[in-house]
Amino acid sequence: MPGIRARRGEARVSRSAPRIRRSTRDVVILHDDTDSLKDRVGAEAHVGVWEAILPIEESLVKLGHRSRRISVGAGVTDLIQKIQNWRPDLVFHLAETAFGDTIGEAHLASLLDLLKCPHTSVGAEALIFCRDKLKAKSILREHGVLTPQHATSFDGRLPETLPMPPWISKPTLEDGSIGITSDAVTSDPIKLRRRVQRLHRLFSQPILIETYIAGREFNVGVVGEQVMPLAEIDFSGLPARSPGIVGYEAKWKYSSFQFKGTATLCPAPVSDAIAQRMYRVGLAALRALNVSGYARVDIRMDAKGQIYILEVNPNPDLSPIAGMAKMANIAGWGFDGLIDRILTHSLIRRH
């Protein structure tokens, strides 16, 4: 990932903002038509975008900028007309399921590029690679970045060869832990078969079956050239028999025991040597997938200290209770500082 100071040597959290001439900016917040997504699987994740939109709007005002919204629900023609008429300095791209398409986020990034409109998103190619878990795993492995062993069900049936159990199964094209529920981890082939069949019926897409990596989970966060404090997911509040995963309930079901029993520890309680290993692996994954801008990398470390990439998340959740905001607070940026850095880096990157 060009420009990251941690590319060689050690990664150090930056507390200073990148330099750019300060002025009032016209910012458009581009978001999903959440009303049309309320009946889709994963409705809480889709509607939850407002938990980021409203605080971002407040931050933009505090930072001295002007903002307004565009919903993709009005259609492509309306979107193009508004962008061309308003000519914003920047579009804050928060539309993750545009037009009901799992890669709609990437289509919109391409459209903004065609309109020569600066925006906060990574490029369309990186979005497509990261959204498709099979493509991402293939690219990461080709670049020498370790991911859990896996197999894929393309038709709802179990493949002849499976990785080592226990297994965790998930849809290949969904985001926000959609489809990853509390029964996602099992060592029982019968339960696995039933779950894979159910997921295929529900999502009509390939189902990824991975070896579940028991151990500690970490998040590496990056904004532009700035590395954020390492975070660890603390599963100690979960019941003993509950799998330690950040599934759908843990992210979006706020009254669930999974949400209440899963905490973020930041900075992660690890040695500097382990933190540096996490940074190196996380940044290698971002480089392999050509991800710039702001991103979060989810990592597992097993009992032997082996590090695996679970997922690379460009344009991750920016709500004040999400991981990126928590890391920004520990870095001394605060939420407003996080939004300021994303805007500043995006303007520098696009000019």
Describe this structure as you would to a colleague:
Strands 8, 9, 10, 11, 12 and 13 form a 6-stranded antiparallel beta sheet that branches. The chain is an alpha+beta fold. Helices cover 36% and strands 19% of the residues. Strand 8 and strand 9 form a beta hairpin. The model is unreliable at 1-8 (pLDDT under 50). It is built from 13 helices and 13 strands. The relative contact order is 0.17.
Q: What labels would you give this structure?
A:
single chain, 351 residues, alpha+beta, six-stranded antiparallel sheet, four-stranded antiparallel sheet, 36% helix, disordered N terminus
In short:
The protein is α+β, with helices and mostly antiparallel strands and about 350 residues long. It contains 13 helices and 13 strands. Helix content is about 35%, strand content about 20%.
What is the share of helical residues?
Answer: 25-40%
Mean pLDDT, to the nearest integer, reads 90
Runs in which pLDDT lies below 50 for 5 or more consecutive residues are: 1-8
Give the topology string: H per helix, E per strand. EHHHEHEHHHEEEHEEEEHHEHEEHH
User: By helix and strand content, what is the structural category?
Assistant: alpha+beta
Number of strands: 13
Q: Major β-sheet, in short?
A: 6 strands, antiparallel
Distance between the termini: 18 Å
Set down the secondary structure blueprint.
Elements (H helix, E strand, L loop, with lengths): L25 E6 L2 H4 L5 H5 L2 H13 L3 E6 L4 H11 L3 E4 L10 H11 L9 H8 L1 H10 L7 E4 L13 E5 L13 E2 L2 H15 L3 E5 L4 E8 L2 E2 L3 E4 L13 H5 L4 H4 L2 E3 L6 H17 L5 E8 L5 E8 L8 H8 L3 H17 L1
Parallel strand pairs: 1-2, 1-3
Antiparallel strand pairs: 4-7, 5-6, 5-7, 8-9, 8-10, 8-12, 10-11, 12-13
